[in-house]
Amino acid sequence: MTDLEPTRPPGWMSSLLRQFMIQGSWNYRSMLGSGFAFCMIPFLRKRGLSGDELDDAVRSHMDTFNSHPYLAGVALGAVARMEGSGTETETIERFKRAIQGSLGGLGDLLIWGAWRPATILLALVLAWAGTPPWVPVCVFLVVYNGGHLALRWWGYSRGLQYGKDVGVQLRMAHLSRLAERAFSGGALLLGILLGVYLVSRLAAEDAGGLWSFAGIATFGLGLRFGHRALRGTTLIVALVITLLTALGNA
Amino acid sequence: MSLALLGGLLALDATSVGQFMVSRPLIAGTLTGWWLGDPALGLEIGAILELFHLAGVPAGGSRVPESGPASVVAVSVAMHAGGVAGLALGLVAGLAVSEIGGMTVGPHRHMVARFLGRIEAGSMTARKLTVVHLSSVLLDFVRGAVVTVVGLSVGGWLSGVFASRWPLPYETTVALILVGACAHLGALLRGFGGWKSRRAIFLVGLVAGIVGAYL
User: Chain A within 8 Å of B19 (Cβ-Cβ)?
Assistant: First the structure.
């Protein structure tokens, strides 16, 4: 880390706010590339660039880039710092190419794979417990977004602080360990929810044992085949409901 | 009209703006129920629809069902149909609209790619990039609103025609839906690391859930 660049260069707040819509122009050509360039504009303007200079600088950030949206700030902050310290364009491009895979993989694992389902399961358990409707909604939004905003802030501030060395910070943060903890918490909540459904919802029907057995069987199907089983079972449920409705008496 | 706006805003939350997960079925369903005057029904429909979306992971820009506008349609159809039929038809409407919504995301992304290709081929400026970026957000909002309106129109009409035909009582209807949802819960445990890695903590939860349900 050099002492020449401030850890919060001019334009950092505007860029942070833009990051909430970094996926606004997500596309199959450059993926997050255009959103990345859109978020870089405040930094470039505050550095005094305008006219053709600004357009050239923006164009240099339009290349293909992909990342988890919550962790894109790591790369944005680091690139802003590197540009501020006069790093060559080729070096910045190499850095973006090198770091995007980690940011995508870690974010997908930690947020989409662990944190989001775990916090939703918490809200579903609260909903089953008979709390007023606003309770699971507020608990989910506060807990989930607490983690979401903390991760965005952490990533962006680390990027701004460490520049091209931010990769070391990413490794030291042990985000995959956090994901492991969220997986464990999620598995506990998943067990609670399944237990509740098997006993109170499926067994409540007259032929309770059979429904519970069917529930365990489909759970096993999902566990065995994973995502390959999902569209099939969803389609079967939708078809059964449609058929029962069509064959029912008005 | 207000539901179309809600659907458009929820579509934005899923990808383009914020990603605060207000668009999750549990939240979007409850919000729609609150908007229509029955938050408890909104929560119930949202929770059921959530079970069918819980294991989905939108990794690497892959196409996944879109839950925001679908939740608006599901709760609206459930209220329109009323009673137990509402539960079943609301779920089917929600599942259908989430698939259709997911399919419309691809063309939107291709369209944005074409816009960007044009400005990159010509004279790309910061101003043009900003215009394309914000237009893409607006287009995503319109897409979500249109999906919601079409879903509400078709779903409302179908629920009016078929609601009185639903033959099963409440408990059986819920059991039927939950049996299907259990496959998604199984896939989620696989996503959490699978049976071998998580069986101890999962079984602790299962016992706690069973005891809790009996109490």
Answer: yes
Question: What domain count does chain B have?
Answer: 1
Hey, how many other C-beta atoms are within 10 angstroms of the C-beta on A84?
19
Q: Which residues contact B116 (CB under 8 A, 6 or more apart)?
A: A25, A27, A29, A30, A34, A62, B132
Give B26-46 pLDDT, tens digit per residue.
999 999 999 999 999 999 999
Please write the tens of the pLDDT for every residue from A60-115.
Answer: 999 999 999 999 999 999 999 999 888 898 999 999 999 999 999 999 999 999 99
| pLDDT over threshold 70, residue B177 | yes
How open is the CA angle A186-B183-A140, to the nearest 5 degrees? 35
Q: Do A205 and B175 touch (CB under 8 A)?
A: yes
ipTM of the prediction: 0.95
Helices (H), B122-164: 126-162
Residue B72 in domain: yes
Taking chain B, what is the end-to-end CA distance rounded to the nearest angstrom? 45
For residues A247 and A36, which has the higher predicted lDDT (pLDDT)?
A36
Here the tokens at position A236 are 């079967």
Residue of A85, A41, A46, A231 whose CA lies nearest to B134? A41
Residue of A nearest to B109 (CA): A27
pTM over 0.80: yes
CB B187 within 8 A of CB A190: no
A91 exposed, middle or buried (CB, 10 Å; 0-12, 13-18, 19+)?
A: exposed
Q: Hey, which residues 100-159 in chain B have their CB within 8 Å of chain A?
A: 109-110, 112-113, 116-117, 120, 123-126, 129-130, 132-134, 136-137, 140
Half-sphere exposure of A76 (CA within 13 A, CB side): 42
Q: Which domain holds residue B75?
A: 2-167
Residue B214 lies in a domain: no
Mean pLDDT within B71-93: 95
For residue B197, list its beta bridge partners: none
Instruction: Determine, yes or no, domain membership for B206.
Output: no
Q: Which one-letter amino acid corresponds to residue A90?
A: E
Average pLDDT over every residue of A10-29: 94
> What is the domain partition of chain A in residue ranges?
12-202, 206-250
- Report the 10 Å Cβ neighbour count for A172: 9
Residue B193 near residue B200 (C-beta atoms within 8 A): no
Owner of token pair 């509402």: B86
The answer to whether the Cβ–Cβ distance between B88 and A245 falls below 8 Å is: yes
Q: What is the CA radius of gyration of chain B?
A: 20
Report whether pLDDT(A1) > 60.
no
Q: In angstroms, rounded to a whole number, what is the distance separating the alpha carbons of residues B44 and A8?
A: 46
B127 in a structural domain = yes
B70 touches A: beta carbon within 8 Å: no
